C-alpha cells in the first residue's frame, strides 16, 4: 500500500497578480527540472494543505500548488465579509491557471484535482487541452442539479447523516427550510457577524460531516477560515459551479486523448461514485477505480494508494 511521500517544503513561492485586484499564492516543490504537475485543491475555497505536496515523487516532479482566489494565502481574503466574490468564477480560475503556467514557464503539466479540484481540472483541461499531459481525478464532482440535490435536500445524504442533517436544517427557521441553499446564502452574506458566523459554522459542520468513511475529529478552524470557505463554497453552489449549461460531460471529446485516472470511494457521500461512473461512461478511455473501503477523503489509505500509483506511473511520461 503506497503511503505519502515524505514532507517537502517549497523551494519557491510568491503572489501572482491575476487582475481584478486579485493575487494568488503559489508555490513549487520537488525537482525544479522535473516533470511539471499542478495540484488543484477542493472546496471551492478550501485552500492548500502541506500533505497536498506529498502525492508526487519530489525527486521526479516539479510540483506546483496554488490557493484559488480569495482563500488560503491569496488576496484579498474572503474571511473579510467586505471582500467581493464577483470576480471569482470558474472562468476566472481557469484563466488564473493559465496565467500561472505562463508565469512559471511550463509548457504542459499533469493536472491533479480532488473534489471541487476535479471540476476545475476538467474545466481547465477542456479549455486548454494542449496544456494537459495527464489528469488524475479524485472524488468527481460534476455540479449538476441532481448532484446539488443529493447534498442539500432531504432526499440525499441526509438519509445517511440524519443527526448532522437535522443540525444543518434546523439552524434555519422552518419557514425557510424549503430552500436551504438560499436561506444560508442570505445569512452567510449578511454583514453582521452575529448572523453570518453561526450560519458559516453550521454550513462548515455539514460539509465536514461526510468527509471520510470512518468519522474523524473535525479540525480546529478559525472563524475567518470558516467564513471564507462558507462564502466561496456557497457562491459556487448557488451558481451551478459557473459551468456551461451543457455541463462538463459535453466537453469530454476535447480531452479524450489525455491519459486519465479517476478514483472514487464507494462510500463517498459528498461526491457519490455515480458521478465518476457517468464521467467514465462518457469517457471510457479514462481509467476508473472505485475504492471499496473509502469515502470522500484523499488521505484514506486505498484512495491515497491509487492516486500515488497514478502519479508514479505518469512521472516518466513526457
Automatic annotation (TrEMBL):
UniProt cross-references to InterPro entries, sorted A to Z: AB_hydrolase_1, AB_hydrolase_fold, Peptidase_S33, Pro_iminopeptidase
Domain AB hydrolase-1 per the UniProt entry, residue ranges: 38-297
Keywords: Aminopeptidase, Cytoplasm, Hydrolase, Protease
Keyword Cytoplasm: yes
Transmembrane intervals: none
Keyword field contains NAD: no
Gene3D superfamilies, per database record: alpha/beta hydrolase (3.40.50.1820)
Record-listed E.C. numbers: 3.4.11.5
Signal peptide per UniProt: none
Catalytic reactions on record: Release of N-terminal proline from a peptide
Domain of life: Bacteria
Record Pfam families: Abhydrolase_1 (PF00561)
GO molecular function: aminopeptidase activity
Subcellular locations according to the entry: Cytoplasm
Enzyme class: hydrolase
Family per similarity comment: Belongs to the peptidase S33 family.
NCBIfam families: pro_imino_pep_1 (TIGR01249)
Protein name: Proline iminopeptidase
Organism: Actinomadura rugatobispora
Amino acid at each position: 500500500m503506497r503511503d505519502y511521500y515524505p514532507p517537502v517544503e517549497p523551494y519557491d513561492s510568491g503572489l501572482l497578480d491575476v487582475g481584478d485586484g486579485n493575487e494568488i499564492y503559489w508555490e513549487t516543490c520537488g525537482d525544479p527540472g522535473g516533470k511539471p504537475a499542478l495540484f488543484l485543491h477542493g472546496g471551492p475555497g478550501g485552500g492548500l494543505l502541506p500533505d497536498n505536496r506529498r502525492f508526487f515523487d519530489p525527486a521526479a516532479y516539479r510540483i506546483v500548488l496554488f490557493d484559488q482566489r480569495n482563500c488560503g494565502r491569496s488576496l484579498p481574503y474572503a474571511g473579510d465579509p467586505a471582500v467581493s466574490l464577483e470576480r471569482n468564477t470558474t472562468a476566472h480560475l481557469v484563466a488564473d491557471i493559465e496565467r500561472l503556467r505562463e508565469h512559471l514557464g511550463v509548457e504542459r503539466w499533469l493536472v491533479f484535482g480532488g473534489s471541487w479540484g476535479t471540476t476545475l481540472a476538467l474545466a481547465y483541461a477542456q479549455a486548454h487541452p494542449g496544456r494537459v499531459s495527464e489528469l488524475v481525478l479524485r472524488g468527481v464532482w460534476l455540479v449538476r442539479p441532481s448532484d446539488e440535490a443529493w447534498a442539500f435536500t432531504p432526499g440525499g445524504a441526509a438519509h445517511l447523516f440524519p443527526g448532522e442533517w437535522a443540525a444543518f436544517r434546523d439552524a434555519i427557521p422552518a419557514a425557510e427550510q424549503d430552500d436551504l441553499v438560499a436561506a444560508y446564502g442570505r445569512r452567510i452574506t449578511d454583514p453582521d457577524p452575529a448572523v453570518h458566523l453561526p450560519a458559516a459554522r453550521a454550513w462548515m459542520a455539514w460539509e465536514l460531516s461526510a468527509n471520510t468513511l470512518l468519522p474523524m475529529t473535525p479540525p480546529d478552524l478559525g472563524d475567518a477560515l470558516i467564513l471564507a470557505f462558507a462564502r466561496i463554497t456557497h457562491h459556487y453552489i448557488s451558481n451551478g459551479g459557473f459551468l456551461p449549461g451543457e455541463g462538463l460531460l459535453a466537453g469530454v471529446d476535447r480531452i479524450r486523448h489525455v491519459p486519465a485516472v479517476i478514483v472514487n470511494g464507494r462510500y463517498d457521500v459528498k461526491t457519490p461514485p455515480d458521478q465518476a461512473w457517468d464521467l467514465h461512461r462518457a469517457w471510457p478511455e479514462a481509467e476508473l477505480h472505485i475504492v471499496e473501503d473509502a469515502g470522500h477523503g484523499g488521505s484514506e489509505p486505498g484512495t491515497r494508494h491509487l492516486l500515488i500509483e497514478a502519479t508514479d506511473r505518469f512521472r516518466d511520461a513526457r
